[in-house]
């Protein structure tokens, strides 16, 4: 068990990649605090998305709590850590995963679309990382922070001029936090997912031509699944990565390197 008796916080943990990270962490022995926001997704049967993931974790014999809050607000990270410590006594791992990507053209992008994307993806990552790192420092036993950056930290997207800078920022945040927090034994790394089939891009990939184009560009021949990313997050969070900090791991099926 790679995360035996660890306490893991996952932001944006009710759906998509975050849900997979929460479940994979529980499967590896962790108790999990799941942050979510406006969970109105009824695609998990009668239960809401967050109710169903809590149930799946408890069915594994691990504990889980759900804490609603918009990570774009600084208080959310502070309250999320407080509720986690209240429930489980500590924080060992933070998966700073919450993010949005409302695809939109650049020239007529509404200010609200830009500002909300920056607030959630970058400001949110900063706030929750700061809150978790302060708790880990207080605990005095180190910790691991894994941020969900993106292949989009390294390459652009014509409909993602608001989004790609935030993912580059998350990547850089982890590099600087690795330096700032190394003295406390807190490791900071990022994963860089490629095109992973989730509700984040369901609309974008509902275009059969776009989906076929992306699949053709990926050397492994398929879009990623959320658990493909979750397994890499578990590795970076675990003691197997004990000497890894300030690093980033592409999880993209070879998409980034595929020019021709
Ligand atoms: C990723 C990458 C994918 C896109 C998602 C939303 O960074 O750009 O292609 O589907 O974002």
UniProtKB/TrEMBL annotation:
<dbReference type="GO" id="GO:0019301">
    <property type="term" value="P:rhamnose catabolic process"/>
</dbReference>
<dbReference type="GO" id="GO:0006633">
    <property type="term" value="P:fatty acid biosynthetic process"/>
</dbReference>
<dbReference type="InterPro" id="IPR002347">
    <property type="entry name" value="SDR_fam"/>
</dbReference>
<keyword id="KW-0521">NADP</keyword>
<comment type="pathway">
    <text>Carbohydrate degradation; L-rhamnose degradation.</text>
</comment>
<dbReference type="GO" id="GO:0048038">
    <property type="term" value="F:quinone binding"/>
</dbReference>
<keyword id="KW-0560">Oxidoreductase</keyword>
<dbReference type="GO" id="GO:0016616">
    <property type="term" value="F:oxidoreductase activity, acting on the CH-OH group of donors, NAD or NADP as acceptor"/>
</dbReference>
<dbReference type="Pfam" id="PF13561">
    <property type="entry name" value="adh_short_C2"/>
</dbReference>
<dbReference type="InterPro" id="IPR036291">
    <property type="entry name" value="NAD(P)-bd_dom_sf"/>
</dbReference>
<keyword id="KW-0684">Rhamnose metabolism</keyword>
<protein>
    <recommendedName>
        <fullName>L-rhamnose 1-dehydrogenase (NAD(P)(+))</fullName>
        <ecNumber>1.1.1.378</ecNumber>
    </recommendedName>
</protein>
<comment type="similarity">
    <text>Belongs to the short-chain dehydrogenases/reductases (SDR) family.</text>
</comment>
């Amino acid at each position: 068990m790679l995360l035996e008796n660890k306490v893991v916080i996952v932001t944006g943990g009710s759906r998509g990649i975050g849900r997979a990270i929460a479940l994979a962490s529980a499967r590896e022995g962790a108790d999990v605090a799941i942050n979510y926001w406006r969970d109105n997704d009824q695609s998990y049967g009668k239960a809401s998305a967050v109710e169903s993931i809590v149930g799946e974790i408890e069915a594994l014999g691990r504990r889980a709590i759900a804490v609603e809050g918009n990570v774009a607000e600084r208080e959310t990270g502070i309250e999320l850590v407080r509720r986690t410590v209240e429930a489980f006594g500590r924080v060992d791992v933070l998966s700073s995963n919450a993010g949005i990507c409302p695809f939109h053209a650049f020239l007529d992008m509404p200010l609200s679309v830009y500002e909300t994307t920056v607030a959630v993806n970058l400001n949110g990552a900063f706030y929750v990382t700061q809150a978790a790192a302060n708790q880990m420092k207080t605990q005095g036993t180190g910790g691991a922070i894994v941020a969900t950056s993106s292949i989009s930290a390294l390459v652009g997207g014509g409909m993602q001029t608001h989004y790609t800078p935030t993912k580059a920022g998350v990547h850089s945040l982890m590099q600087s936090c690795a330096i700032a927090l190394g003295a406390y034994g807190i490791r900071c790394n990022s994963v860089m997912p490629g095109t992973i089939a989730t509700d984040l891009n369901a609309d974008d990939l509902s275009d059969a031509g776009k989906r076929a184009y992306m699949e053709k560009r990926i050397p492994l021949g398929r879009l990623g699944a959320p658990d493909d990313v979750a397994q890499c997050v578990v590795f970076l969070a675990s003691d197997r990565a004990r000497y890894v900090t300030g690093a980033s791991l592409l999880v993209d099926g070879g998409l980034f390197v595929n020019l021709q």
